[in-house]
Amino acid sequence: MSSITELATERVKQLTPYLSARRIGGKGHNFLNANEAPKSATFLMKSITLNRYPECQPPEVIEAYADYSGVAEENILVSRGSDESIGLLVRTFCEPGRDAILISTPTYGMYSISADTAGVKTVDVPPADDFQPDVEAIRNTVENNPEKIKVIFICSPNNPTGNVVDDDKLVQILDFTRGRCLVVVDEAYIEFCPEKSKVKLMKDYDHLVITRTLSKAFALAGIRCGFTLADQEVIKLMLKVIDPYPIADPVAQIAVQALSTHGIAIMKERVAELIERRDRFVEEVRKLDYVQEVFYENANYILIRFRDGEGLFKACADKGIILRDFHTKTRLQNCVRVTIGSEEEMNEVLSVFHSIKQ
Ligand code: PMP
């Protein structure tokens, strides 16, 4: 070990870093592995005062998101993507070495990575067969786990399975966690099924937190802009932990344009087109005899179980099509997740799928 590595904390030496989309992308040309939008949205920059620090929480961005989401301004925090929001929630509410977060895998990887980085344990309570949370097992864990569970992360639609948490399951969890821990619902993909948002439950449960992003339906993964919707006390606490100037001025300008009436109309058009394309793609995929299972259709990706998932992933990679391979993950043997890209990108995927024999 080099002398520099020796200087790092034991915890950091043990960490496995997040494998970002660009890092695993490799040599492809058709990137369908990170649930990004196929085309960049375009924006105009006004002249800006780059000599000045921006506001920590640019009021025009908060105001625009309040109008869009129907949530009051004092209940909104803006951050560098929803990934930062996940990290802030862990660091604000979990005592390192004493507390834990609860997740139900398979789910989004950043919850446990954020916990690891903060020295906080992750407790995994596997979901039921339909990937809904196992409410009784969660209750049992919250009541009896040796480390205090402080934050429960529920991803809805879940990445990678695509299912949305049932309202009654979430309400049961919210009922027995009141005063004990936060329940965070990650709605990164909610614009693809807006009627399934849990924002409506926020008025009854002050420990329900919702995270959102401009990275997916708004096609703005490159600007890093996400939101936390929560009780004012939660927001005030997170503001004690957030870095001083997370939202750069150009980011704020683009976010405001994306959240304008015009920006939202464009987003909705893009979402409608993508859903149509996803449904056509799924229809074709179901016809392939080596496809064993198509998971839930609620977002801009679809998880598929093949007879030989690893073989299919490699056959696509050989042609420069980068998908996301889940074949080593518990309960996802032979599963590959496909992001819904442009018409041309999906046609290319289908033509490779048609050429494969399994
Ligand atoms: N939540 C989920 C479920 C995701 O899939 C992602 C993107 N990979 C994020 C949050 C993070 O999104 P961002 O930081 O770009 O807002």
UniProtKB/TrEMBL annotation:
Domain of life: Bacteria
Cofactor: pyridoxal 5'-phosphate
Annotated Gene3D superfamilies: Aspartate Aminotransferase, domain 1 (3.90.1150.10), Type I PLP-dependent aspartate aminotransferase-like (Major domain) (3.40.640.10)
Pathway: Amino-acid biosynthesis; L-histidine biosynthesis; L-histidine from 5-phospho-alpha-D-ribose 1-diphosphate: step 7/9
Reaction catalyzed: L-histidinol phosphate + 2-oxoglutarate = 3-(imidazol-4-yl)-2-oxopropyl phosphate + L-glutamate
PTM annotation (N6-(pyridoxal phosphate)lysine): residues: 216
EC assignment: 2.6.1.9
Entry annotated with the keyword Repeat: no
GO molecular function terms attached to this record: histidinol-phosphate transaminase activity; pyridoxal phosphate binding
Record-level GO BP terms: L-histidine biosynthetic process
Quaternary structure annotation from Swiss-Prot or TrEMBL: Homodimer.
Similarity section: Belongs to the class-II pyridoxal-phosphate-dependent aminotransferase family. Histidinol-phosphate aminotransferase subfamily.
Protein name: Histidinol-phosphate aminotransferase
Taxonomy of the source species: Bacteria, Pseudomonadati, Pseudomonadota, Gammaproteobacteria, Aeromonadales
